[in-house]
TrEMBL record:
Protein name from the UniProt record: procollagen-proline 4-dioxygenase
UniProt source species: Drosophila ananassae (Fruit fly)
Pfam families xref list: 2OG-FeII_Oxy_3, P4Ha_N
The organism's taxonomic lineage, starting at the top: Eukaryota, Metazoa, Ecdysozoa, Arthropoda, Hexapoda
EC number(s) reported in the record: 1.14.11.2
GO-annotated cellular components: endoplasmic reticulum lumen
Amino acid sequence: TSDKKTSLSVASLVPLLEMERQLINNLEEYTIDLKQKLQILESQIAAMRAENEKGYADPLAYVSNPLNGLSLIRRLNQDWVMWRKFMQKPVGVLQMRTLDLWLKKLPTNMDLYSACAGIIRIRDYYDLKLSDIIRGNLFRFKYNVSMSVPDLYAMGQHLFENDQFLCAIPLLQDVLQRIREEPFPMGPQLNIEELDVIKLLVQSYVQSQQYLQALSILEEGLELSSSDAFLIREKENALRLMKETPTKEKPTKKCTIVNKKHDIWKNTKECCKGTYKSNNRLMCYYNSSTTPFLRIAPFKTEQIGLDPYVVVFHDVLSPREISKLISLTDRKLVQAVTVNKKSFKEMVRTAKAHWVYRGYQELTKRIYRRIHDMSGFELADAENFQIVNYGIGGHYGEHKDYFNASSSFFTGYHRSQTKKYLGDRIATVLFYLSDVEQGGATVFPGISADSAYTVYPRAGTAAMWYNLHTDGLGDPTTLHVACPVIVGSKWVMTQWIRERSQIFARPCLEPSPSLNPS
Ligand SMILES: O=C(O)CCC(=O)C(=O)O
Ligand SMILES: [Fe+2]
């Protein structure tokens, strides 16, 4: 439905290209029909004109011949009725019907909204400027892609609708200038009305208390349409507001994001950008002891941080396993939801997720055994795998994986699921199923300066951490964030391990027994 905030995952954009190709083909077929009709007309007109010219030289002689006379009468009696029908018959009925079938499957307003929001999110997390982003300057690299005028206009409208007036202004100014230089950037059919842009700009200036600019652009609008009721009203409004507002109050002129000033947000951004100083007393080692099997096949293990304890296992999934896992999700990805409803509305998680059922097949069983070897945990009661593909600027905002019975997020559903059956999420194993060209790191912004970590996605590796203290209470330092993807299609697979069946694997009060190297 239209008001649900969904986001298209990057992988699901691939079939859209094919869809677009079909739509273009369909439109091309329409031109073929048009051309055929034109050809019929041209040849018939030539023939009719030739006959008419024949009589025109000496009309009386022409009509005196009864064959000519009859023909003239018949032509005028019959043919023009036929031509009227010909002119009336629409071209492209078939193609229009085809188009109608496609229209229902095309991205919705909400999809466009999510895409715009994704771009804004990239700006905010990586401290980029929209003026750079729209020119293809994405974080560390410059790409040979830039936004077209209609794309810019869509972004400007999005910012406007989200009250980011100061940010909308430069984009809308850009649009205005460019449609004045070239009125039909996408042909007259997809015209952007100059007056519409002006109206958005006027409102943006008024909203950001830049009344002089508002008035000057208003004059430009009134030149185009002197009796436009909206413009006349806005002009009175702007003049009144200008008088009422004390002059010494200087409005900010820079497009900046408000709120979000707290330390976790600052740390998150540093971590996402990879500019955080990392602890250099960590090590890499071969883990050959968590389970007996590891003596013949130890895991390459890298410590990411000690408190909370986070490790990364390298090369734990093969490319073949990864492509099989991803193919399990084909066409089955649905909007990922979070435990609390509010976060869903606010786009805390912008990805498509798919649950892969336990014991589904040899492949997943094998991976369960591997997770047992990595963690030492019993997986009899583990959750299903969740495979996720992120969207444009796709992210997962700050959250903890545990439920904590006392937490307010702990809704009825989860209470029964956690307490009675499986217990809380004692640990998380996060597999990366893809590299990501830029962005998309998993970060632990930490509560103190030296417990902020960044894990970069690399196909085949897996991060693992404990969500609970040994007394079973949630460890708040495990708060983490999936940073927005800048460029790439990020795939992950999570395994949340439940507490209940770990009574022998991880008895209480023993600190992190299976991961620390001895
Ligand atoms: O995708 C990521 O990097 C993190 C995902 C995550 O935190 C989760 O699914 O709980
Ligand atoms: Fe998580």
